[in-house]
Amino acid sequence: MAHKSGFVNIVGNPNVGKSTLMNVFVGEKLSIITSKSQTTRHRILGIVNGEDFQIVYSDTPGVLKPAYKLQESMLNFSKSALSDADVLLYVTDIYETPEKNQEFLKLVLASEAPVLLIINKIDQSNDQQLDDLVDLWHQIMPKAEIFPTSALKAFNTKNILDRILQLLPEGEPYYPKDTLTDKTERFFVQEIIREKILKYYKKEVPYATEIEIEEFKEDEKIIRIRAVIFVERETQKGIIIGHQGVAIKKIGVESRRDLERFFDKQIHIELYVKVRKDWRNNEDDLLKFGYRPV
User: Fold this and answer.
1) 214 lies in some domain
2) 170 - beta bridge partners?
3) Which one, of 242, 243, 244, lies nearest residue 229 by Cα?
4) Confidence (pTM)
5) Beta bridge partners of 146
6) DSSP-derived pairing of the beta strands 87-93 and 145-148
7) pLDDT-derived band of residue 229, with 50, 70 and 90 as boundaries?
8) Whose CA, among 84, 155, 231, 256, lies 20 to 30 Å from 107?
9) What crossing angle do the helices spanning 234-241 and 246-263 adopt, rounded to 10°?
10) 8 Å CB contact between 94 and 141
11) CA end-to-end span of the chain, whole Å?
C-alpha cells in the first residue's frame, strides 16, 4: 500500500473549538485552551503517524481583524495555512454566524485544497438548529463536505479522520516518525504559563503578556526553569504580581503542576515580571518572541 502524507490545516474564528479539535486528533495537549479569544498566537504543528500515513495537523490563531501588529502577525499565520494545505478544516460552531470575517472566508472559498467544514459543539444544539445550519453552510460553501461534530466529546471525529486519510496525497513523511510537533520544549513551557495567565487575569492584562524562558536546565530527575513574564505597563506588572506576590505565586504553582504532568519530571520554576512598553506594536520585539514580521 502506498504511503500517504500531507498537511491538514485547521482554520476558523476564535472560540469555535479549533484547538480542542487539534488536541483530539493528535492525542496530546499541544494547543492551550481557554474560554478567551486570541488564546492561540502561533501556528502549531501536531504530527500523527501510522504504518502507511503521516498527518501533519496545523492549529492556527483565530481569525480576527487586527488592531495591532501582533494580531497582524497572527492573521498571517492563519493565511499561510491556506497556501500549503493538502486538506483544509474550516471550523465553525453552532453559535457563529457566517458573516464574521467575510474576507477570510473568501480566501477559504478560493483555496484549491479540499475543504471539510466542521460544525462544532453540536452537543449544545437541537436537531432543527443543526439542520438549519447545515443548509446555510451548504449554500455558502457548496463544495465543502460538512461534518457536525463535538470536539469536546470526540463525536464524529473518527469519520473526519477517515475522510482525511482518503484525501491525503501519496508521499513520503515530512518528519521523522517519532516526531510529535515542530515546537521546542521551551515553547510549551511558555504556553503553559500563558494559559494560566489567560485563565486567572481579566480585561487587557492577558493580551498584553508574553513569556520568555531565560533558563531551562534538565537533569535526570528535575527540570529547573526561569521564566520572564513581559507586560506593557507598570500597572500590569503590579496586577500580575498581586498583593504580596500572591497572584504570581498562584501562576507558578499551577504552571508547575501542569509542567510536571507534561514532562513527567519534578519541576522547579521561578517567575519574574518585566515591563517592555508597547511590545505588541514593536517589530523587533515581535521577532524576538517568534512572530513573523509584518
Assistant:
1) yes
2) 4
3) 242
4) 0.82
5) 117
6) unpaired
7) very high
8) 155
9) 70
10) no
11) 44
- What CATH number does the domain containing 93 carry? 3.40.50.300
Residues 278 and 236 in one domain: yes
pLDDT reported for residue 170: 95
Same structural domain, 127 and 216: no
**In a shared domain, residues 67 and 134:** yes
pLDDT of residue 36: 57
Average pLDDT over residues 114-128: 94
Q: Which pLDDT value is given to residue 207?
A: 87
Selection from 10, 187, 15 nearest residue 95 by Cα? 15
Q: Which residue has the cell 512572530?
A: 291
| Antiparallel, parallel or unpaired: β 222-231 and 266-275 | parallel
Q: Is residue 180 part of a domain?
A: no
Decide the pairing of beta strands 4-12 and 87-93: parallel
Taking only the tens place, the pLDDT of each residue in 137-162 is 999 999 999 999 999 898 999 999 99
Q: What is the domain range of residue 265?
A: 185-288
Report how many domains make up the chain.
2
Cα separation, 122 vs 125, in Å, equals 5
> Is residue 173 situated within a structural domain?
no
Cell 477517515, residue located = 162
Q: Are 104 and 16 in contact (CB under 8 A)?
A: no
State how far the Cα of 55 lies from the Cα of 43, in Å rounded to an integer: 16
Residue 214: pLDDT over 90: yes
